[in-house]
């Protein structure tokens, strides 16, 4: 005997569906999703070897979910961090649950960080991923923002690459509002107004010598 | 006490960028197994009771579950298989998985096949793919690629430990020149020249203090390693087997900047450690491996190693994390060339990632295979000369390393 069960109530939703009312597109010209396509091939003279060219384009949706406040903050020119109400540790990049095992995955609170930071360590890049080549040389620093217990990577602008120093004070500078996209490159670091570089020394000379050909190379890029 | 884990053979294809003659991954895997069978004629594919596949990124392979293609091609349908992926430590993690399978008693003869085909995209695109193993929400868009993260870590480490650009350049010179004795090494097959510290110092800036010749190579390559119980080792290769006497696996943060003040590490090693400079997961996994293998003084008890020199700077950092030197002795340790073939603990006699190459999923297996060849006395038949043979080794260390030090394994291998 089979009993028929009538479901009267709709299943309760795990979460309310967000209503996405603000939408923006800033797709570079020519970017499109074509999916998978074989777009060409080559065959060796002796016809023993073949290479085939497969093009694959994919549009991803990064659902920031509980981390969203940080990325929305960037659009508003703010650095949002999180803080554990139990142990007081705070972070940028954010953690939605505390890292301290004693706090047992305590949910954290949002806090706005001051737009100041301090260099923990640095490097001067003369090579990078395809999308960054034209901006070389790049000074990349890891810096603690506000009270953050962790250091965050970002570019340092506004000084010669050989002048960057450990421990130097920084300010956070955002791009103009209309250029922001809600990603970490909406902002960069610059030296704090009070900061003055040290005079030239052998290490600075060395870095200068290493980056000079990089400036020349970048000029040759289309 | 769990069962002993043995290594009885293994081989790689030549590592290269572009055409190698081993273009298809399944063809390369088959050739690695054929070479292993030449060394161990008693080994039959029918003896395998598990195959573990070691592969990092399907972005490079343009194929999901590519291990299924290899497995099928090898005629192993029916045999259990799965893939291990753990960044640059994929090979080490696959060996860890194979060892657990043997130790548990569930399996007796486990193959590991690893590969990467990084030349299926351009070099700069490849750098970006690898960087997708960083936290892309926070790091990829700010010019971030792995050499830059490593450079930021190494720059501070070198200052704190008084290690110079020239010091780390000697590591690159050592490994690339070792590779000149190894016909399967990418450096031997491509640049094919002996280099000096000046060559490294004058090579193109990648990210200060790392230059082009401080960096390992993007590669295409396949490797096969044969792991088994002692019973099987005694049966098929009684004269040339080694035992995995110790192993350790540990982890650290994905973003290097999150290592400052990390409560887990502070509790274990004291406040401030590892900062952005030390490889805590290497120290921790080495401690596990040393304890298991009964090693009290690694410098005395270990004869040589094959370690993860993705950058010359990281090899130096690894020396310290393995406990071979401390902040007071590390600079002198490097300057005294303790890790050259004439030194007391040669490192990367096979060429390492700097010389042999770094096809990620095959890399940790390559290191293990080179360590095995040394311990099994097979260098004269595998290298071009005895120049890169460690003299009478009994104990070697294999190190495999991922992310910015995000996952690291260490293995102690002993000659039987
Ligand atoms: Zn807490």
Describe the structure.
The complex is a heterodimer of chains A (222) and B (416). Chain A is α+β, with helices and mostly antiparallel strands. Helix content of chain A is 12%, strand content 27%. Chain A has a domain at 65-219. Chain A contains two helices and ten strands; from the N terminus they run ββαββββββββα. In chain A, a hairpin with a 5-residue loop joins strand 7 (138-145) and strand 8. The longest helix of chain A has 18 residues, at 202-219. Chain A is flat. Chain B has a domain at 5-121 and 219-229: 3-Layer(aba) Sandwich (Peroxisomal Thiolase, Chain A, domain 1). Helix content of chain B is 39%, strand content 17%. The longest helix of chain B is centred in the middle third of the chain and has 16 residues, at 146-161. Chain B is globular, with a radius of gyration of 20 Å. The chains are: A alpha+beta (222), B alpha/beta (416). The interface between A and B is large, with 51 and 49 residues. The complex binds zinc ion.
Lateral strand order in the biggest sheet of chain B:
3-2-4-7-1-8-11-10-9
**Can you tell me the residue ranges of chain A where pLDDT is under 50 for at least 5 consecutive residues?**
none
The SSE order of chain B reads EHEHHEHEHHHHHEEEHEHHHEHHHHHEE
**Mean of pLDDT of chain A:** 93
Radius of gyration of chain B: 20 Å
Q: Assign the CATH class of one domain in chain B.
A: Alpha Beta
Largest interface: A-B, 51 and 49 residues
User: What is the SS-derived class of chain A?
Assistant: alpha+beta
Strand order of the largest sheet of chain A: 8-7-6-9-10
End-to-end distance of chain B: 19 Å
- Strand residue content of chain B: 15-25%
Binned, the helix content of chain A reads 10-25%
């Amino acid at each position: 005997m089979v009993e028929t069960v009538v479901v009267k109530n709709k299943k309760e939703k795990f979460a309310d569906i967000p209503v996405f009312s603000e939408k923006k597109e800033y797709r570079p010209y020519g970017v499109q999703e074509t999916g998978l396509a074989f777009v060409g091939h080559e065959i060796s003279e002796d016809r023993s070897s073949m290479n085939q060219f497969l093009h694959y384009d994919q549009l991803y949706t990064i659902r920031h979910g509980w981390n969203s406040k940080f990325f929305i903050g960037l659009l508003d020119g703010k650095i949002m961090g999180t803080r554990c109400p139990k142990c007081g540790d705070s972070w940028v990049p954010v953690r939605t649950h505390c890292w301290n095992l004693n706090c047992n995955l305590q949910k954290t609170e949002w806090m706005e960080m001051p737009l100041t930071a301090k260099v923990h360590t640095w490097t001067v890049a003369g090579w990078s991923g395809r999308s960054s080549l034209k901006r070389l040389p790049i000074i990349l620093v890891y810096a603690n923002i506000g009270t953050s217990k962790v250091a965050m990577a970002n570019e340092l602008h506004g000084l010669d690459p050989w002048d960057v120093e450990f421990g130097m004070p920084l300010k956070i500078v955002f791009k103009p509002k209309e250029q922001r996209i809600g990603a970490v490159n909406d902002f960069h670091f610059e030296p704090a107004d009070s900061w003055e570089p040290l005079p030239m020394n052998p290490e600075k000379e060395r870095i200068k010598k290493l980056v000079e050909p990089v400036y020349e190379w970048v000029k040759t890029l289309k | 006490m769990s069962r002993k884990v043995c290594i009885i053979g293994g081989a790689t294809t030549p590592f290269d960028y572009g055409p190698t003659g081993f273009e298809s991954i399944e063809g390369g895997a088959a050739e690695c197994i054929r070479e292993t069978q030449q060394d161990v004629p008693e080994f039959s594919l029918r003896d395998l009771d598990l195959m573990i596949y070691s592969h990092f990124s399907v972005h490079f392979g343009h194929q999901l579950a590519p291990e299924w293609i290899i497995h099928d091609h090898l005629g192993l349908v029916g045999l259990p298989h799965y893939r291990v992926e753990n960044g640059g430590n994929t090979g080490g993690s696959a060996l860890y998985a194979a060892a657990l399978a043997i130790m548990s008693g569930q399996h007796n003869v486990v193959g590991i096949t690893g590969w990467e085909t990084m030349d299926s995209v351009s070099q700069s695109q490849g750098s970006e793919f690898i960087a997708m193993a960083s936290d892309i929400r926070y790091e990829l868009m700010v010019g971030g690629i792995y050499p830059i993260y490593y450079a930021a870590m190494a720059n501070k480490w070198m200052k704190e430990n008084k290690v110079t650009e020239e010091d780390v350049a000697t590591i690159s010179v050592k490994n690339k020149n070792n590779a000149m004795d190894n016909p399967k090494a990418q450096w031997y097959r491509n640049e094919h020249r002996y280099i000096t510290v000046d060559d490294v110092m004058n090579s193109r800036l990648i990210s200060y203090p790392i230059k082009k010749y401080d960096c390992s190579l993007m590669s295409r390559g396949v490797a096969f390693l044969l792991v088994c119980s002692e019973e099987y080792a005694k049966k098929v290769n009684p004269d040339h087997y080694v035992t995995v006497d110790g192993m350790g696996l540990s982890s650290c943060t994905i973003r290097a900047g999150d290592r400052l003040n990390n409560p887990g590490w502070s509790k274990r090693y004291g406040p401030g450690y590892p900062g952005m400079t030390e490889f805590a997961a290497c120290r921790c996994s080495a401690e596990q491996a040393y304890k298991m293998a009964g090693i009290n003084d690694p410098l005395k008890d270990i004869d040589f190693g094959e370690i993860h020199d993705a950058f010359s700077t990281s090899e130096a950092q690894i020396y310290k994390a393995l406990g071979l030197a401390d902040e007071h002795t590390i600079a002198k340790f490097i300057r005294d060339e303790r890790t050259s073939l004439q030194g007391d603990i040669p490192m990367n006699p096979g060429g390492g990632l700097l010389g042999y190459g770094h096809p990620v999923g095959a890399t940790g297996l390559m290191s293990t295979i080179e360590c095995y060849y040394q311990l099994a006395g097979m260098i004269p038949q595998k290298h071009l000369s005895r120049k890169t043979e460690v003299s009478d080794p009994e104990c070697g260390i294999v190190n495999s390393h991922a992310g910015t030090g995000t996952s690291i394994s260490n293995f102690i291998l002993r000659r039987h």
